[in-house]
Automatic annotation (TrEMBL):
Keyword Isomerase attached: yes
PROSITE patterns hit by this protein: PGM_PMM
Organism: Croceivirga thetidis
Coiled coil: none
Name of the protein in question: Phospho-sugar mutase
């Protein structure tokens, strides 16, 4: 028998709901392609938890795949904390079925004797991370697909430190899940163990966010913000946090303020995409606002637009926002006096400018694999060190360590503090960023994402990365290749001398070229979407801020040339 059909027929037993069985039988009878995509593999945990299209099957998000995850997690918690009164907190976002799926997850946990705190309404991912430690829970779960399209949902697991699961817990939990059959799931809820939470945790989270992100910037009465939640969860937190920090000139885009899993006003609820902030930017131009802030559905990513040198609103990328936020925090620490144990952090595909800044300030620099869980792990692994702040190119940032995942709530406040103070000083967010380029080097990055869906798409991605590894370039825009960093083998090779050195970072399917002039090209498959991603970074010096436009144009031309050379343009 066809293994796909055999896998599907296991879902036709009496354990599964009648409507599920009817949908699967219909796929078997009428839609071979959809049946194959629904059952050709099991959903896996990636860089940001488990995400997938909602529907029936092992490769879909549904009550059974999430129920099996939760049963495995329950078994693991019992083994890890024998005899303890286990507690887990659950949050969910605006996605279709997030509320009902989160209730299923709560029921499975309670059926296993675990006390569940479940937010009564949608809440942000950073508040979930905060709540794990605030409520002294053993784990946390958030139902979200972050910025993925409307047909997706997802499941992220957090450990006792408030960070996402990392080795060894992730592998051990996955082993528990894989050891189960679907019929092992205990769906018989113990309602007495499920407790609704909301405002008491909100209040603690808001208070801490303002404490960490507010630096008493000048000029708040004269600083105007346009904010959009892009139909997501941040509407429950960011307006209140800004208000408490003294920002009274905040215009909310009402057309996008109501949570809605269809995301009806945008093509994608991803603040990395200029189109997602188009409505907010238009409003900012109309009313003469200073800054636009937009967040993704679960409020861990933020996009920022500010006025450029020509007075026009310009969307900054994640690297640019991260650099200026980190510079601001470093200046605050420097003013107080460094203790000598501080560090900043970013990921291997983010701007090398972060390391230049760390060196200039004399603080430790740490780099991690893509995925904010690795930055959270640093805080856990080095308790004697103090985390100042850090982020990644994909529009995520974390201020301090009271949240252990990227946090668009506190980061929004920090961005406003920087911009408000800059305006009061006669400068601007954009001009302060240019000053960073004159101090630390002008680094400019570009991301290319290619979508390859389904089983054939997965094979295409695999082949592209294989070709990238086996047929390295000799030079990029006239600069000879110097290093190849292969995170699959944990080695970096000097291609000119043949010398190889180990990389002290967990293995991952990432390959990076670096040329003699510091140009870097990284390739990796997305951990959350059917995409292959290419990250390109190049740099030069910027002697004077007055040269910014011409040098910026030169770097744009170089990036275009690199894309053409790699056939990515």
């Amino acid at each position: 028998m066809n293994p796909i059909v055999a896998s599907a027929q296991k879902w036709l037993t009496d354990f599964f709901d009648a409507d599920i069985k009817a949908q699967i039988q219909n796929l078997i009878d009428t839609n071979e392609d959809e049946l194959t995509d629904s059952f050709y593999k099991d959903l896996e945990f990636g860089t940001g938890g488990m995400r997938g299209v909602m529907g029936v099957g092992t490769n879909r998000i549904n009550k059974y795949t999430l129920g099996k995850n939760t049963q495995g997690l329950s078994n693991y918690l019992k083994k890890s904390y024998p005899g303890e009164d286990l507690k887990v907190v659950i949050a969910y976002d605006c996605r279709h079925n997030s509320d009902t799926l989160s209730q299923v997850v709560a029921e499975v946990l309670s059926a296993n004797g675990i006390h569940v705190y479940r937010f009564s309404e949608l809440r942000t991912t950073p508040e979930l991370s905060f709540a794990v430690r605030h409520l002294k829970c053993h784990a946390g779960i958030v139902l979200t697909a972050s910025h993925n399209p409307p047909e997706y949902n997802g499941y992220k697991v957090y450990w006792t430190d408030g960070g996402q699961i990392v080795p060894p817990q992730d592998g051990e939990i996955i082993a528990e899940i894989n050891a189960l059959d679907f019929t092992d799931i205990n769906f018989e809820a113990n309602e007495s163990l499920i407790e609704s939470i909301d405002k008491e945790v909100d209040e603690a989270f808001f208070e801490e966010s303002v404490k960490v992100g507010n630096f008493n910037a000048a000029g708040k009465d004269d600083f105007h913000i346009v904010f959009t939640s892009i139909h997501g969860t941040s509407i429950t937190a960011i307006p209140e946090v800004l208000k408490r920090a003294g920002y009274n000139n905040v215009t909310v885009i009402e057309e996008q303020a109501t949570p809605d899993g269809n995301f009806p006003t945008v093509k994608s609820p991803n603040p990395e995409e200029p189109e997602a902030l188009a409505m907010a930017i238009a409003k900012a131009e109309e009313i003469g606002a200073d800054m636009v802030v937009g967040t993704d559905p679960d409020s861990d990513r933020l996009g920022i637009a500010v006025r450029n040198l020509d007075g026009e609103m310009e969307l900054l990328n994640g690297n640019q926002t991260m650099v200026l936020m980190t510079k601001f925090l470093l200046d605050q620490y420097k003013a107080k006096g460094f203790a000598g144990n501080e560090f900043i952090a970013t990921t291997i595909v983010s701007t090398p400018m972060m390391e230049q800044m760390a060196n200039a300030y004399g603080v430790e620099f740490k780099t991690a694999l893509t995925g904010f869980k690795w930055i959270g792990k640093m805080i856990k692994d080095f308790p004697q060190s103090e985390f100042i702040g850090g982020g990644e190119e994909s529009f995520g940032y974390m201020v301090g360590d009271f949240v252990r995942d990227k946090d668009a709530v506190t980061s929004t406040l920090l961005a406003c503090e920087i911009a408000s103070q800059a305006k009061a000083n006669g400068s601007s967010f954009y001009k302060d960023l240019i000053d960073c380029y004159t101090q630390f080097g002008f680094y400019k990055e570009k991301l290319i994402s290619l979508t390859k869906k389904g089983m054939t798409g997965a094979e295409e991605i695999k082949q592209m990365l294989k070709d990238f590894k086996e047929n390295p370039v000799e030079s990029v825009q006239g600069s000879r290749l110097l290093y190849i960093e292969d995170y699959n083998t944990s080695t970096v090779k000097n291609v000119q001398t043949g010398e190889e050195k180990p990389i002290d970072i967990p293995k991952s399917n990432v390959l990076i070229y670096e040329t003699e002039d510091g140009t870097r090209i990284a390739a990796r498959p997305s951990g959350t979407e059917p995409k292959v991603k290419f990250y390109i970074s190049t740099n030069t010096t910027l002697a004077n801020a007055s040269d910014f436009k011409s040098v910026n144009s030169q770097l744009d031309s170089k990036l275009d040339g690199i894309l053409a050379e790699l056939n990515l343009g």
